[in-house]
């Protein structure tokens, strides 16, 4: 009996023990970082403004920063790494370009280019079989998509759903689209903010919208739920209408009891019940599946990511800021 009680208490303590702090690392550049991809606990890739990308192969102790040759003026808002040598990055604005390296970032090859007026690639996601999708802002009212099934060597593009006037996507953290078992989950913002499950549109009435600076910025998806964060980046401390939980089966929305403490541009699962989200006004963690959020720092970050094969969580943001979550 005593033993059972002790084990129960231990388990409860473990469940309640959520990460409370971050450690700032020296990144060695002033680039604004919005792309972050962590392969395993040692291998971290990041991408940002002025053509910069970074790679660490020692768990973040040291980062090597370089500019992608020929693209020094481009802003790489998302990166996806497959190991210490192979990664794909996308740049916003025209022409739309996708670049890939297979030698740890020493050389990059342009694998896709589109000069159509209005091109603006926002975010990218891959499953673990090399299938990938990129979403871009609407052109003549229709969202742009590029897809690959060979880890980003060959891309095919097409236009998708029609959206409202002034409804688009934020290229804030590369995390507003997710590829789940062949289905595309993504969120829009601006004049209108919606969640799309493939082509089905679901209004996000609980998220602030109506202005260019408002709406959903990021989603985290597990087998049953979609956690959505966003807000108004022009007023980044407003701590309501910035997060909602959506149950895919019951189609039920749940507004958190304690919302994240401001506009948030990225949210991820740490495990089944623990989540972290970040934005320009700080970082919050939740230990109860996103119902209650606790502010752990007011230091701003654009993006957070967890190791695909591992447990490490990193954050990155403006001014080359990179931090590690203490777990
Ligand atoms: C930001 O939000 C706060 C709280 O809602 C409000 O008092 C303030 O006027 C807003 N500022 C701007 C610039 O919209
Ligand atoms: C999925 O996410 C919800 C909401 O955060 C959480 O309550 C649930 O436990 C998670 N389910 C699984 C299977 O991880």
Kindly provide the radius of gyration, computed on alpha-carbon positions and rounded to a whole number of angstroms. 19 Å
Envelope shape: globular
Measured between the Cα atoms of the first and last residue, the distance is 31 Å
Number of strands: 30
Helix-strand makeup class: mainly beta
Number of helices: 1
Fraction of residues in β-strands: over 45%
Summarize the structure.
This protein is mainly beta.
Q: Would you give an account of this structure?
A:
This protein is mainly beta and 327 residues long. Helix content is 5%, strand content 46%. It has one helix at residues 2-16, and strands at 21-25, 33-38, 44-48, 52-56, 64-67, 76-81, 87-91, 96-101, 109-114, 121-126, 132-139, 142-148, 156-162, 167-168, 177-180, 183-187, 189-190, 194-197, 200-203, 214-221, 225-232, 243-247, 252-254, 266-269, 275-279, 282-286, 294-297, 303-306, 313-316, 322-326. Strands 1-30-29-28 form a four-stranded antiparallel β-sheet, with no helix packed on it. Strands 2-3-4-5 form a four-stranded antiparallel β-sheet, with no helix packed on it. It is globular. It starts with a helix and ends with a strand. Bound molecules: 2-acetamido-2-deoxy-beta-D-glucopyranose (2 copies). One 2-acetamido-2-deoxy-beta-D-glucopyranose binds next to strand 21.
Compile the SSE list and pairings:
Layout: H1 2-16, E1 21-25, E2 33-38, E3 44-48, E4 52-56, E5 64-67, E6 76-81, E7 87-91, E8 96-101, E9 109-114, E10 121-126, E11 132-139, E12 142-148, E13 156-162, E14 167-168, E15 177-180, E16 183-187, E17 189-190, E18 194-197, E19 200-203, E20 214-221, E21 225-232, E22 243-247, E23 252-254, E24 266-269, E25 275-279, E26 282-286, E27 294-297, E28 303-306, E29 313-316, E30 322-326
Antiparallel strand pairs: 1-30, 2-3, 3-4, 4-5, 6-7, 7-8, 8-9, 10-11, 11-12, 12-13, 14-17, 15-16, 16-18, 18-19, 20-21, 21-22, 22-23, 24-25, 25-26, 26-27, 28-29, 29-30
This protein binds 2-acetamido-2-deoxy-beta-D-glucopyranose (NAG) (2 copies).
């Amino acid at each position: 009996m005593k033993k059972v009680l002790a084990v129960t208490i231990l388990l409860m303590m473990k469940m309640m023990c959520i990460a409370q702090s971050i450690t700032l690392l020296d990144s060695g550049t002033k680039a604004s970082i919005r792309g972050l991809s962590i392969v395993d606990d040692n291998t971290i890739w990041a991408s940002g403004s002025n053509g910069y990308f970074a790679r660490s192969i020692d768990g973040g102790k040291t980062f090597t920063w370089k500019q992608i040759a020929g693209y020094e003026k481009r802003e790489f808002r998302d990166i996806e790494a497959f190991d210490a040598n192979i990664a794909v990055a996308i740049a916003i604005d025209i022409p739309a370009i996708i670049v890939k390296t297979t030698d740890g970032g020493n050389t990059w090859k342009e694998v896709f280019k589109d000069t159509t007026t209005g091109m603006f690639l926002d975010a990218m996601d891959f499953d673990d079989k090399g299938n990938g999708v990129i979403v871009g802002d609407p052109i003549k009212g229709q969202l742009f998509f590029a897809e690959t099934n060979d880890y980003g060597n060959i891309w095919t593009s097409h236009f998708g759903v029609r959206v409202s006037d002034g409804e688009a996507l934020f290229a804030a953290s590369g995390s507003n689209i997710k590829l789940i078992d062949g289905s595309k989950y993504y969120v829009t913002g601006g004049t209108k903010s919606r969640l799309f499950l493939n082509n089905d549109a679901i209004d996000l009435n609980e998220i602030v919208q109506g202005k260019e600076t408002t709406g959903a910025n990021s989603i985290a998806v597990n087998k049953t739920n979609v956690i959505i964060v966003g807000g108004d980046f022009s007023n980044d401390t407003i701590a309501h209408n910035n997060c909602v939980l959506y149950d895919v089966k019951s189609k039920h929305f749940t507004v958190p009891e304690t919302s994240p403490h401001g506009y948030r541009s990225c949210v991820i699962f740490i495990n089944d019940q623990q989540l972290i989200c970040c934005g320009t006004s700080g970082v919050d963690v939740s230990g109860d599946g996103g119902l209650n959020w606790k502010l752990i720092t007011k230091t701003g970050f654009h993006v957070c990511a967890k190791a695909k094969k591992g447990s490490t969580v990193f954050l990155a943001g403006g001014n080359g800021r990179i931090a590690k979550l203490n777990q």
